[in-house]
Amino acid sequence: MLISGAAQAHNPFEFQTPVTPIARETLYVHDLFLTIIAVLFSIGFGFLIFSLIRYRRGRGHAPATFTAPRTPLQWALSALPILTLIFIDYVVMGIPAYHAVLSLANTRDDAGLVIKVTGSQWRWHYEYPDQGISFVSNLSTPASERDSGAPTDPNYLLEVDKPLVLPVGEKVRVLLTSTDVIHAWWIPSFGIKQDAVPGFLRETWVKIDKPGIYRGQCAELCGVGHAYMPIVVEAKSQDDFKRWVADAQTSAAQAAAVTTLSKEDLLKRGQQTYTTYCALCHQPTGLGLPGTFPPIATGKPFAAPPAMTDLLAQRGFFKDGKIVEGSVDRHIQIVLKGIPGTPMPAFDGQLSDADIAGVITFERNSFGNQTGDVVQPSTVKAARGK
Amino acid sequence: MSSAITDLGHHHAHDEPKGLARWLTTTNHKDIGILYMLFGLTMFLLGGVFAELIRVQLIHPANHLVTPEVYNQIITLHGLVMVFGALMPVTAGFANYLIPMMIGAPDMALPRLNNWGFWLLPPAAIVLVLPFILKLFGIGNGPVDTGWTMYAPLSVQGGLGVDFAIFAIFLLGASSLMASINIVVTIFNLRAPGMALMKMPLFVWSWLMTSFLLIAVFPALIAGSAMLLADRHFGTHFFSAAGGGDPVLWEHLFWFFGHPEVYILLFPTAGILSQILPTFARKPIFGYRAQVYSYWAIAALSVVVWAHHMFTSGMPVAGQLYFMYSTMLISVPLAILFFCWLATIWKGSLTFETPMLFALGYIVLFGIGGLTGLVLADAVADQQYHNSFFLVAHFHYALFGGPIMGVIAGVYYWLPKITGRMYSERLGKLHFWLTMIGFNITFMSQFFLGVAGMPRRIPDYALQFAPLNLVSSLGAFLLGAAQLILVYNIARAWAGYGQPATSQVWEGAHGLEFTLPSPPPHHTFDEQPVIA
Amino acid sequence: MSANTAATTRRYFVPKPSPYPALLSFAIMLLAIGLALRVNGYPAGQWIAWVGLASIVFALVRWLGNVIGESEGGFYHKWEDRSFRLGMIWFIISEVVLFATLFGVLFYERNVSVPWLASLDTHFTPWPHFADAWPTAGPLGKSFATVNPWRIPALNTLLLLSSGATVTRAHHWLKHDRRGALIFWLAATILLGVIFLVLQANEFYEAYTELGLTLGSGVYGATFFALTGLHGFHVTVGVVMLTAILVRIVRGHFDPSHHFAFEAVSWYWHFVDVVWMLLFVFVYWL
Ligand code: HEA
Ligand code: HEA
Ligand code: CUA
Ligand SMILES: [Cu+2]
Questions:
Q1: In 10 A of CB B395, how many CB atoms?
Q2: Which residues in B lie closer than 8 A to residue A91 (C-beta atoms)?
Q3: Taking CB atoms and an 8 Å limit, are A221 and B154 in contact across chains?
Q4: What's the CA gap between C153 and C142, in Å, rounded?
Q5: CATH superfamily, domain at A113-148+155-256
Q6: Which residues of A touch C42 (CB under 8 A)?
Q7: Is B519 exposed, middle or buried (0-12, 13-18, 19+ CB in 10 A)?
Q8: How far apart are the C-alpha atoms of C272 and C193, rounded to whole Å?
């Protein structure tokens, strides 16, 4: 669904083209520093190579015996490189770095738009509090592409179903948090990388120069799906952005109004939700991973530490070493609230009533499960309060 | 009474246990030193196998050699095994073998404790990798998979491998503390008459500082790991906001240990370098005092800069600035060390035997590692480098380019002393050149990968990163294959092949250990020498 | 550097090869594996852990037996003694770092993380109603009451302080070779330590049953039990060591000039004392 062609074709040896003030500053600093260290290295290396050639024993050089500087001149020569290094550290590098730190930290002044980014294993949840928009952004590279062994999609692993949309030319304050472990929101061409720490809020900001599609990835190890939570930002002109906001608001209102769906619709929706949200752990086959993620298919054995299986047994989903189908109520609760103390996440903040109704209906009627149960969005809505 | 002394204290080779029992029960510093070194070599090979697996997985995108879960386990074990299993034990082995000889001591001060310190290591390694085996029996889902930094809450959430890693850390910590205490006591109490502190070889100084650092920071990691264990199983909330705790607290604890740890790895090999360079330059070391003071400065600074690993974790501006500037300050004493090394070479009479080649390689490669470290110290630029392959390249230049090169140099330098046999110089030189070429191919490409935006710790990546990853993997295969030469060279000398070595081994070598025969007698200085 | 051998007659005592260090290590490994399995709910781990613990006790007893034998056999002189002293000092320094870390954690949780959590932007934070306070169970914790510092803890302070004095007394009499007084004051020290432990255990019991203060009581509960628990563990070890020393004294070990083991344990005891003072101030009182 993504506009193709807008992918930045970029030189794999350099920074991606900077499009924010911070990124430009970083690139400047980077170029400056690399030049400096290249010069330092060349001087040291040149000195070394010179000695190696000049003072080879083969050339009959008799060794000197000095062990420390003695004359004032020698002291000066010894101090010079050290003083130069201090000068480089604190003046040449230190001053630009000082300004960059201050400007990066200034997230609030003149910020026009505020967005909240929440990391979860393994997707990003974007909210526009003032606009009342909220959606989840998932990796959309199909599994077939990943299994092919020879992917061809130019945006392989850098594509999502719903990109974050931002206006250009406006300072956007970005608040970050997480629901489970630490993630990091990194977009190279914006020059920012900020950790999303569960239970806390972190801030950063962007002001994008020109419309386009910008891609990044999660940059903090967050479990098995760490490689699969890309970030895609679609920067639009102010007008396009306003239009997009209006559209998003209407469709959100429509979605919230849904209370009942046909079984077919639920199953279709459920399958989609399952593939994007659950399959990473419970696997596309519904068979889970031994020791880590239980099967969804009932009757299948699941061996895991008792600390995990006990929690499942309490909820009526585990008996005699096998997964069993627990009650619908419990099932809804598990998906809404997760299973605290295990990787099973809470989805109440991420999925709509219809999606949750769909995925539970789907699970209870797939992978060989044949309960025939149909769960409606209204039931999920009612269960949310509990 | 005096007969009892002979009985208990003064045993001779004939009443010593033989075979495996000898190694299990030994109280002899040379035996223990050799045990440490062999253990470290084994772990280097194991960590190397993990490294090669990483590079095979990353050779092209969408590779399915291992699952993402196993990939995370492999990188974690690679990091832990290389740092705690290979580097630290090998340098501790050098310390045990050499320090008593270098300072004219009869043995280490606490010989039985010394043995204990070593024998805690194999159990630690077993505990660390045991979950691989348990998994085959359906217990748990394999070893720790959180990265060697074990950031909470990922490590709170993880499987039983994390608990095994925590217990392994306890064992490693106990071992390191024991070894450090022993070394400090030996240096303070067992020097030969006349061996003033400021006369000690720099290698001994470097280990004194290493021991101080270990004693000063390892307990922090032990405490942190215990808290992690409690968060995982006993319901505490040290690292969870729901109870008023903070995941970032783990990062502080880990890096309060972790940053000094990099100098713990570096120091002993900086010391080795300062033994080797004068030998092959045939010229006394330049700036002995300056180097000792630099060690002190580095050690002192190293415990106050840890949060430069956390520039993206979200710190107040004052914190960013403080940690940035203090980190930059460390480059000063390190540059002094470099300066002294270069000045030692300057106007010498140089020859290029294998140890010297590796020492020079160290200067060049660690120079790159250190200078890129300086770049990482910039809090804003680090927004780009952090957790990218640029960082991976930095720390391999710093860890392999520095300490590992130094260890290899040390092995070639003292191997003739230890085994009494010269290694093959031709193969040694080949080893050096293949290592230099392989290493630079492997890790130079990673600087570019990082700059182009490739995150670390991912088993699969976007297409634009494919060409350089291929290059890096090919380099790694060459680098790995080159290390087989080292193994061969050691085995050959060990088995008693090669030219016999003289006492002095190297024409330019000085120091007490080179006054002893090669190999030195089992007990070195029953009678302490007097240093004039 | 020139070196000429001979000249000295000093001989350093290098003990014979000993199987106990390696045995001890593998015993600890069993304990570790057992515990790691146990906390993950595998009951078999428990048995592995017990076997490990039993082997640890065995190896330690044998090892220490050797040490005592050597000490009493006259193999340790001034030179060796100095090694033991230095070793003990550096060991205690590492313990200082261990406790310092936990105090650092207390400081961080109390002065950084709790205020930070309470000061997050109320529109976005998951805990808009959380206020900065200490003690706290955190945003989601259950409420609890704290231990009154001026009751058991104050009494415990007195007990430990006096035990520091009694052990110094004992040392004094050891130096003057007055066995009777020595045994009396040492026994008194042990007794004070035991009473301390009993009171402390009682305090923990009440915390759990009456105050609702548990390990799970947010960062307050966590740091409270971590610090007091680790300290209590050290007191326990101290009492065991003091008892071992007492037994040795009763058997006639040590003499006025030669009693490093006694001193080492008393240093340790003083260290544990000082830690308690800090605990009393920072954990219970402030
Ligand atoms: C031995 C190991 C070692 C050493 C010595 C160093 C040394 C340094 N390191 Fe490095 N570092 C690591 C190992 C090491 N590092 C590891 C393992 C990590 C990552 C851990 C992880 O996240 O998993 C890391 C990460 C790391 C970061 C965190 C980045 C991030 O996570 O975003 C930073 C940031 O400041 C940093 C900085 C430095 C600095 C300033 C030095 C300084 O000490 C360097 C000083 C040296 C010099 C300045 C060189 C001076 C030389 C010359 C002037 C002349 C040279 C030229 C020739 C003679 C040819 N390091
Ligand atoms: C002293 C420490 C040390 C050393 C020496 C090395 C050595 C090597 N490392 Fe390591 N590395 C770390 C410490 C070290 N590393 C750490 C701390 C991390 C971070 C982990 C984390 O993210 O948590 C890391 C991460 C790391 C990564 C990043 C993984 C990721 O983020 O996704 C990569 C990728 O290329 C890598 C590669 C290598 C290679 C190719 C070598 C080579 O130099 C190894 C060469 C040696 C051998 C190969 C052994 C000898 C030869 C044989 C046994 C014969 C068999 C050989 C063949 C099959 C060819 N390392
Ligand atoms: Cu989320 Cu990595
Ligand atoms: Cu560091």
A1: 18
A2: none
A3: yes
A4: 24
A5: Cupredoxins -  blue copper proteins (2.60.40.420)
A6: 305-306
A7: middle
A8: 11
pLDDT by residue (tens digit) across B424-440? 999 999 999 999 999 99
Closest-CA residue to A26 (of B385, B389, B452): B385
Alpha carbon distance B343, A77 (integer Å): 11
User: What are the tens digits of pLDDT across the range A330-364?
Assistant: 899 999 988 877 788 888 877 888 889 999 999 89
A259-383: CATH number: 1.10.760.10
CB atoms C94 and B160 under 8 Å? no
DSSP SS3 for B381? coil
The tokens for A322 are 């096998």
How is residue A382 written in tokens?
A: 């009612």
CATH architecture of C1-76: Orthogonal Bundle (1.10)
Contact A210, A169 (CB under 8 A): no
Taken in order A6, A7, A9, A14, the sign of the CA dihedral is positive
Closest alpha carbon to A206 in A189, A190, A185: A190
CA distance, residue B328 to nearest chain C CA (Å): 25
Q: The tokens 């800069």 sit on which residue?
A: B305
Helix C260-279 to helix C78-108 angle (10° resolution) is 10
The upper half-sphere exposure of residue B444, i.e. CA atoms within 13 Å in the direction of its Cβ, equals 11
Tokens for B257, please give them.
Answer: 């240990």
Position B59 scores a pLDDT of 93
Burial class of residue A66 in the structure, from the number of CB atoms within 10 Å of its CB (0-12 exposed, 13-18 middle, 19+ buried): middle
Strands A212-218, A183-187: pairing kind: antiparallel
Nearest residue on chain C to A179, alpha-carbon basis: C126
Structural domain boundaries of chain A? 21-105, 113-148+155-256, 259-383
pLDDT at position A310: 84
Which tokens hold the place of B446? Answer: 């990673």
CATH class of residue range C77-285: mainly alpha
CA distance linking residue B269 with residue B361, whole number of Å: 13
B250: closest CA among B165, B325, B156? Answer: B156
pLDDT mean across residues, chain B: 90
Between CA B191 and CA A213 the distance in angstroms is 68
* Amino acid, res. A130: D
Q: What backbone phi and psi angles, to 5 degrees, belong to B147?
A: 85, 155
Positive or negative: CA dihedral A302, A305, A306, A310: negative
Answer whether C11 sits within 8 Å of B526, measured CB to CB: yes
Q: How far apart are CA C119 and CA C131, in angstroms?
A: 8
Largest CA distance in chain C: 81
Decide: A137 and A160 in contact? Cβ < 8 Å.
Answer: yes
Do C1-76 and C77-285 show the same overall fold?
A: no
First to last CA, chain A: 37
Domain extents in chain C: 1-76, 77-285
State pLDDT tens for residues C26-70. 999 999 999 999 988 888 889 999 999 999 999 998 888 888 888
**B353: Cβ contacts below 8 Å, ≥ 6 apart:** B280, B412, B425, B428, B506
Q: 0.80 exceeded by the pTM?
A: yes
Q: How far is the CA of B210 from the centre of ligand 4 (A)?
A: 16
Contact (CB, 8 A) for A227 and B458: yes
Look at residue C242 and give its three-state secondary structure. Answer: helix
With H, G, I as helix, E, B as strand and everything else as coil, classify residue B503: coil
Q: Is the CB of A218 under 6 A from ligand 3?
A: yes
Q: What is the ipTM of this complex?
A: 0.90
Q: Do β-strands A192-196 and A202-207 pair in parallel, antiparallel, or remain unpaired?
A: unpaired
Per-residue CA distances from B52 to A231, B57, B432 (Å): 30, 9, 19
Continuous H helices in B194-316: 202-233, 247-281, 288-302
Distance from the C181 Cα atom to the nearest Cα atom in chain B, whole angstroms = 31
Residue B125 contacts residue A277 (beta carbons within 8 Å): no
* Closest C-alpha to C4, from B530, B164, A182: B530
